[in-house]
Amino acid sequence: MTEDRTEPDVEAEFGVPIPGVILPEDQWAKTAIKKLPPPGPLDWNAIFGRRAPVMLDLGCGNGRSTLISAIARPEVDHLAVDILPVVIRYATRRANHRGLSNTRWAVIGGRELLQQYVAPGSVAEIHCYHPQPYYERHEIKKRLIVPEFLALVHQGLQPGGQFVLQTDNPAYWKYMQSVVPAFFEFTEQPGPWSDAPEGRTRREILATQKGLPVFRGVGIARADVSSADYQKLIKQLPRPTFNADRRLQVLDRLEMSEK
Q1: N or C: which end of the chain has fewer CB within 10 A?
Q2: Whether 184 contacts 163, CB under 8 Å
Q3: Cα torsion for 215, 220, 224, 225, to the nearest 10°?
């Protein structure tokens, strides 16, 4: 992961400043969850030391999307996770240096977090930006957005909770359009997010700068779908067997290599 400095106290990547300002050391926060407890519903009040709405950022990468939300919405608590320890280290450091005590960061997959640690109806929002499409046929089973995962998201959200999705892969987006509405009232976002017109994520910034389309949408958990419906929907809905288009792998390499 690379970054550049435009000013002594301001970080940037791809020329876009990373949200927030680095504070004096005596104002830094401690936001890392260095070791998750044994599986079981997490106590959000104990983790954050207060009672507040909770947002989950699944596959948070280097943390830009969580930082944007945490800075703009101090009244909301944010748990961001990723399977890569190196990006969580970057994200945790950035949150600490900005004094963002309304964030926590942990190394775990989004599916595993929902399966093992999120009580039903306990979170207000779940965000998932640019899930890996996987290009090889033998890796299709690793794709995150499948009916079983959508059931976990729906289960974890409070009534009326939000599910935010974004991808730059047209085939993945077409698949999302075919399955997400079974669990959520889904509305596509026309154009960039108003809170981050240059991009909520590192990946979105890069895709936009390369002139590639980015697909965005917000789902509201459907009240007419209950846990009793999950298995029926899982059996009925299609699987993500789409061709992810290997030409888009070039963006993966650019994301990891460019400043």
Answers
A1: C
A2: yes
A3: 70
Beta strands in 14-51 (DSSP E): 16-17
Q: Which of 20, 33, 29 is nearest to 79 (CA)?
A: 33
Q: What confidence tens digit (pLDDT) does each residue in 27-82 have?
A: 999 999 999 999 999 999 999 999 999 999 999 999 999 999 999 999 999 999 99
**DSSP conformation class of 247:** G
Cα 44 to the center of its chain, rounded Å: 18
For residues 166 and 216, the answer to whether their CB atoms sit within 8 Å is yes
Instruction: Write out pLDDT tens, residues 160-176.
Output: 999 999 999 999 999 99
Distances (CA, A) of 162 to 12, 58, 116, 124, 171: 29, 13, 20, 7, 23
Answering whether pTM is above 0.85, one says: yes
DSSP strand pairing (123-129 vs 103-107): unpaired
User: What does the CA dihedral 40, 45, 51, 56 come to, rounded to 10 degrees?
Assistant: -50
Task: Give 130's contacts (C-beta < 8 A, 6+ positions apart).
Answer: 59, 61, 166, 167, 168, 201, 203, 204
How many angstroms separate the first and last alpha carbons of the chain? 9
Q: d(Cα 79, Cα 230) in Å, to the nearest integer?
A: 25
Q: Which two tokens stand for residue 206?
A: 């890069």
The structure tokens listed for 97 are 């240096």
DSSP 206-239: HHHHTT---EEEEEEE-TT--GGGHHHHHHHSPP
CA-based torsion, 139, 142, 144, 146: positive or negative = positive
Indicate the helix (H) or strand (E) that contains 242: none
